[in-house]
Amino acid sequence: MCGINGFYSKSLSTFNNVIVKMNLAISHRGPDSNGTWTEKNSGIVLGHQRLSIIDLSVAGNQPMQSNSGRFVLTYNGEVYNHLEIRQDLEKNNSKIKWRGNSDTETLLEAIDFWGVEVTLKKTVGMFAFGVWDKKNRSLTLVKDRMGEKPLYFGWQGEGDNKVFLFGSELKGLKVHPEFNGEINRDSIALQLRHNCIPAPYSIYKNIYKLLPGHYLQLNENDLKKGLLSSQKPYWSVTECAIDGNNNQLKLSESNIQKNLKTHLKSTIKQQMISDVPLGAFLSGGIDSSTIVALMQSQSNYPIKTFTIGFNESDYSEAQYAKKIAKHLGTDHTELYVPPKIAMEVIPKLPMMYDEPFSDSSQIPTFLVSQLAKQQVKVALSGDGGDELFCGYNRYLMSKKFWNTFRLMPLNFRKYIAYGIQSISPKNLSRISKFMPGLNQYSTFGDKMHKGANVLKAKSLYNLYYMLCSHWQNPTDVVINSKEPGTLLTEFKAELTGLNSQQQMMARDLTTYLPDDILVKVDRAAMASSLETRVPFLDHKLIEYVWKIPHSLKFRNGQGKWILRQILNQYVPENLSERPKMGFGVPIDAWLRGPLRDWAENLLNERKLQQEGFFNQKLIRDKWAEHLSGNKNWQSDLWDILMFQAWNDARK
To answer: Which residues on adjacent β-strands are paired with residue 47?
Structure first.
């Protein structure tokens, strides 16, 4: 895991030290070493910050030139099958001479021998890289299939000073003297809806994110004229889902389960290869418990596992993680975080995430990364399991909800919704305490309000989109904004061959997972110089999982059925079976208590009016309702607060 930077400029003489400063801005991504490479006659400058994981020697330092001298690479990530690729290269090229054992060198020599597109078809891993071809005078930027590693790019400046910038994080690009930094109001609208800014957009105008499974190539003419070619796909989750659905496995359930377990173990074993200490995050849920169980089954020593917890029981699974760790025999570390320590993270968030990002689970994600970094340099996580095995509550509830209410006239459903929402969540929760089966849910009132809102849905997809949205009409809030289309709004006609749950899963794999979950984990972990690996996102595993009949994922009103069968071989069912919990923090209570003054300052009416981004009345009304306790607007308010905090921090 590393950080990359680079730029093209016609006038390099004025930018001699810029790449050094760009590297320094992202040094947390790779504190072990750094390097730069410049070719003045082409105008190309590459930079790199290294976090040494495979081959710790100087032979793995970057930017790296191929043996032929044709290609120069700056690369972030891990190619897990690089040893197999080396063997393939050696069979086809007897003249190859290796300088070291790094996957960087393997990737570079593969590109030199086969070219970028063929090499990408052979790679298994997570990566983002920029490679300069001296012969063809072209720059190629690449992002891994699922979008685990970040890569920003775009043109800035004017005339002869116009530059093309790219890098792992915006803070590296911002160092360049030609960086303009004009805020894109349309992107703010997206952030208010999704609590993140979906690719290909960024918070800044003319700066974009490379899409997962895509590459971008700029030739000499593009660079000289300041042009931007289209991103080209080399792998697609959507196509994978469609192909899998059309080619369902015809094996018995037991054989499918056996094969899945074999795939999982093989993938995890591959991702456990490391020249530095390695461990895993363990939340106590199905996904992380499965990863840890299969890690431990293939290890001769106790795997190091890490969990953080909160004293508020509604927000903590630490007690369950501890029991699972004890049963599996891992070397477990847990830390119960008092609210004061958790809240001390909040001022760090704006710069950690570079652009407004308001998934509040960013706080515990950073804390558990910080905890793990004290003992290991690499941590495996269970992300991706919900999207692949039908685990999210919205998959489980939306179809049932829609089948129940879709025959009701829309106006009648709206009337019911109005009736529910006329009662405050606090009072609904009080009522639920006297209702059998509901008295265990302290957030019952909030869930009822959210459920009432989706009663207004016009279709099942509209219902899903509403569940994926915080502010339902963000352009009413962001002044002079127009919400752009995203991968979520561009309906894919070919997905109609999938059932409704499969469609949601496919959309989440292309949007929510890379734009929210993977961004959250990457920035939180890299802020602690910790590499994270996500076994569920191995593309060969994903291709196999989509061929598994959906009835083995969703059964008896429950998701992850087949994954649970595998986990139950290692962990007693009573330790893992319980209602799904989010990895969150009690933002709602904090905003009414210890964070109230901080929030009030950021939501000050005069401040909002002077800055001119938001309709202050809509925000102030929600703030007042939240403070009264009548409604819980924590998600909507956190979106605004994270923008406001980011905007203050960037000045």
So the answer is: 5, 36
